[in-house]
Design a protein that fits this description.
The protein has 448 residues and is an alpha+beta fold. The chain is 19% helix and 18% strand. The protein has 8 helices and 18 strands. Strands 6, 8, 9, 10, 11, 12, 16 and 17 form an 8-stranded mixed beta sheet that branches. A hairpin with a 2-residue loop joins strand 3 and strand 4. The longest helix is centred in the N-terminal third of the chain and has 24 residues. The radius of gyration is 22 Å and the shape is globular. The termini are far apart.
């Protein structure tokens, strides 16, 4: 009897050791299905626990069937996915230190300025704090021009052209860059899920919009954005049809924006030939490539002469205007075909005069059909006529969702004329050691 009881106890002890190893010691932090996670969670939930909430970069995340098994769902914004914030020192080590080192190009003016799929810029601050939009307007314009240059010069590598379809105010006076404004709670300043919830409740919820948030303050992360694990080709891809947000805190303005917008567009899918397995790439030099802790994160220098401030160094993973027949990008999601980008050159304004307007906002109930990247409907009209001195809080079509204010979030819109900004061109190769001022901080991260 004693011998039998001893054998039973040994079996139970062995099972207990295996269970503890499975929960805590054999996988990377909070991994699921053997996929290592990006960053270091700050909660104490068991690794891979179903529906367990973890905190990364101040944002509450959870595993959910709503997102791919290698992505997180925002705990405070169910149904919205992200790979989570990344460490800023990793980003700075493999890409470069701020600011973006590229000569800016003026944003193009085409269509009505609000027709089809558009990226809407939003300046967001905490309720009760100083409104610094006027002081930063010129800086935001310069960043927008750099974003355009990053995308267009990247497209030129494969013989094409691409511009981000920003919301603009087009009229006889020129082409204005539209910046909406909103105030949010202190919680939203640190938690990306809460931020997207409050902005959505304020009317920033159109299915034909991606939203670029310039967050005035916040130190929990560098940048973070929504992303869906969908590598299917065609305009029904989730990254082309859903409302997505990208947020960049003021510590990383003029640095993380092109990267975060690309995540909203759907780069880099984990099925890509040079994916890290963590929604980035591993063939440098490339704006989306760095060692993120994924299972294939070891970096190689595949394009030594490429600028780190450009996309897809060999045009074979996530962005190409001319993928070869039968190649990965010819049969999978290619962000260069996103309806949020436009090809060709359109009328561009270089006047420097600026205007600003604020009106009471309302909310519509339906959204328009997503337009392809090269289609510019001539008949789509904005929700309201834009007089010379006032304009609605957004410039979306009548069928799109426009801004609505709530007790915690207030939305307005300002516009300015495009100006040409010239900065020092990047060197051929940028491989600095970590010089970012938040290097070594676990909480400061750059996403997606």
């Amino acid at each position: 009897m004693t011998s039998r009881r001893t054998r039973i106890n040994l079996i139970l002890a062995t099972v207990g050791v295996v269970a503890l190893a499975t929960l805590g010691g054999t996988q990377s932090a909070f991994s699921q299905d053997g996929v290592p996670e990006i960053g270091t969670p700050t909660s104490s939930a068991p690794a891979g626990a179903a529906n367990a909430v973890v905190v990364m970069g101040g944002t509450r995340l959870r595993r959910s069937r709503a997102c791919a098994s290698d992505l997180y769902e925002l705990d405070e914004a169910r149904g919205r996915c992200t790979h989570g914030p990344d460490l800023a020192n990793d980003f700075a080590r493999d890409i470069g230190s701020p600011p973006i080192q590229i000569t800016g190009q003026p944003w193009p003016c085409f269509g009505t300025g609000s027709d089809g799929s558009r990226v809407q810029a939003i300046y967001v601050r905490q309720t009760g704090t100083t409104d610094n939009l006027a002081a930063n307007r010129a800086r935001f314009e310069s960043i927008a021009q750099k974003i355009e240059a990053v995308y267009n010069q990247s497209a030129a590598k494969t013989g094409g052209s691409r511009f981000v379809r920003f919301v603009t105010t087009n009229g006889s006076a020129g082409c204005g860059f539209s910046i909406s404004t909103a105030t949010v709670t202190a919680t939203a300043m640190g938690d990306f899920g809460t931020l997207t919830n409050e902005l959505s409740s304020a009317g920033f919820n159109s299915s034909s919009r991606h939203y670029l948030v310039w967050l005035d303050g916040g130190t929990a992360y560098c940048g973070i954005g929504n992303l869906y694990g969908d590598d299917s080709s065609g305009q029904s891809n989730l990254n082309a049809t859903q409302t997505l947000f990208a947020s960049v805190t003021s510590q990383c303005w003029d640095y993380a924006e092109p990267h975060e917008i690309m995540h909203n567009l759907g780069g880099v899918q984990n099925s890509a030939p040079h994916s890290t397995g963590g929604y980035h790439c591993n063939d440098q030099h490339d704006y989306m490539c760095y060692s993120d802790g994924g299972p294939r994160a070891t970096q190689t220098i595949a394009c030594p002469s490429a600028s780190p401030w450009s996309f897809d160094c060999n045009g074979d993973d996530y962005f190409s205007t001319a993928p070869p027949a039968g190649s990965y990008l010819a049969t999978h999601w290619n962000t260069a075909t996103s309806p949020y980008l436009v090809a060709g050159t359109a009328p561009i304004s270089t006047t420097s005069t600026s205007i600003a307007a604020t009106t009471t906002s309302t909310r519509a109930t339906t959204s328009p059909t997503t337009q392809p990247a090269t289609t510019q409907p001539a008949t789509t009209q904005p929700a309201t006529t834009q007089p010379a001195t006032t304009q609605p809080a957004t410039t979306q079509p009548a069928t799109t969702t426009t801004r609505a204010t709530t007790t915690s979030t207030q939305a307005t819109t300002t516009t300015t004329r495009a100006t040409t900004t010239t900065t020092t061109p990047p060197p051929t190769t940028i491989r600095p050691r970590c010089r970012f001022r938040f290097c070594g901080s676990v909480s400061a991260g750059l996403s997606d």
